[in-house]
Amino acid sequence: MSSLWRHHDFRQLWASETVSQIGTQVTMVALPVLAVTLLQATPLQMGVLTALETAAFLLIALPAGAWVDRWRRRRVLVSADLVRGAALATIPVAYLADALTLGQLYLVAAVVGTATVFFDVGYQSYLPVLVERSQIVDGNGKLEASRAVAQVVGPGLTGVLLRVLAAPVLILVNAATFLVSAVFLARIRTPDVVPERAARRPLRTEIAEGLSFVVGHPLLRRMVTCTALANLGGSMTGALLVLFALRELGLSEATVGFVFSAGAVGGLVGAVAAARVARVVGEGRTIPVAAVAFAVAGAGLPLAALGAPSLVLVVSWFAASFAVIVYNVTQVSFRQRLCPPRLLGRMNASVRFLVFGTLPVGGLLGGVLGTAIGVLPTLWVAVAVQALAAVPVLASPLIRMRDLPDELDATAPEPVEVSPATPGSASPS
Fold it and tell me: pLDDT confidence of 350, banded at 50, 70, 90?
């Protein structure tokens, strides 16, 4: 098996993802800080902002998958980057003109979220086209490592820069990174073949085929249920976390950035260790184990109100980031090799619809509950939802499985290979 370090096209995809992820992490801190400190957003308004960032996954993910399977994926990725960069660039322009409003933030969040749907569906469908099947786990691990590095560098850098620059100006950095990302993507050489127009069927039929593949496979169905519930709770938390840290815990913007960076080191460790964890624990068992670990780690966020908030948040964030990345690398690699190439776009879109469709619901729910019962009780409700998320994979054959099936037995009603764990044995997304 050739090394991905020497794979030209994978390096371009990897570089693109790394650059855009760093910029994205800057915006993930700068945008809510801007809303809370400059525009005095309420918990409900923060919930609306979070919901609009992800509403497109619920509204257009399914047709987006069918469209991506009809289009050239590289062109989809480049176009999505350009749209996101242009939309974000309007924020510093409006700020400098003293015309920035929450309404504009809502609109930009919706536009960027829509472009992200197309980018994510195209991106996860493109990797199996660029690399060999045996390289998919390695490729996902490297891409998740870049994401984790960005989560370490981005928030900490943001916290430092927020001392000297306004949040809207920092968002301009993200706009520029999307342009750089598009340049790397344009350098990919692998031909991207699309089906002939004559072979296309009605859009509804193609959408149904992708959705049926996901919900019809017993293991995928349980993973999707787990992820959807975890995202529901995570989105409730995400809508209120910055507000909770700044107003209720009394942390500074710089400290919030440091907490996110220090905690995100866990994601970097998880990306590096994911393949080994899957080998030692067993690929199947890794999924429920990681789901439980994520739920337990999430309880640390509201516990920060009891004291030593910075330390508690860092430890909780570290453990949660580690568990999420290991879970993502494992389950995404499984479904990428499981799915026939012609269905990749629709499969990924169906999964995105089901698991990210809960994000806007969670954001709005977090905002509503935060207003009605308070921010801290809402965070505990979110912890309960994330604990519930682990049940579908715990109460499944996954907990007894070492190896997950591949394409040849993708439609098997039950796992075809279950073997006991071998402690110490060695060989996300």
Answer: confident
Tokens 């998958």 belong to residue: 65
> How far, CA to CA in Å, does 260 sit from each of 119, 318, 380?
25, 9, 20
Quick: pLDDT tens for 31-85: 888 888 888 888 888 888 878 887 887 888 778 777 777 777 888 889 999 999 9
Cβ-proximal residues to 130 (8 Å cutoff; 6+ apart), any chain: 7, 9, 10, 13, 139, 188, 190
- Ranges of beta strands (E only) in 245-393 are none
3-state secondary structure 123-154: HHHHHHHHCCHHHHHHHHHHHHHHHHHHHHHH
Which amino acid is it at 370? G
Token pair 């107003």 is at which residue? 247
CB 418 within 8 A of CB 400: yes
Q: Which residues, including other chains, have CB under 8 Å from residue 312's CB and lie 6 or more apart? A: 300, 303, 304, 306
Residues with Cβ within 8 Å of residue 386, at least 6 apart in sequence: 229, 230, 233, 234, 294, 295, 298
Tell me the average pLDDT across 223-242.
89
Structural domains in the chain, sorted by start: 4-190+202-409 (1.20.1250.20)
Write the CA distances from 370 to 201, 238, 251, 313, 381, integer angstroms: 46, 12, 19, 19, 10
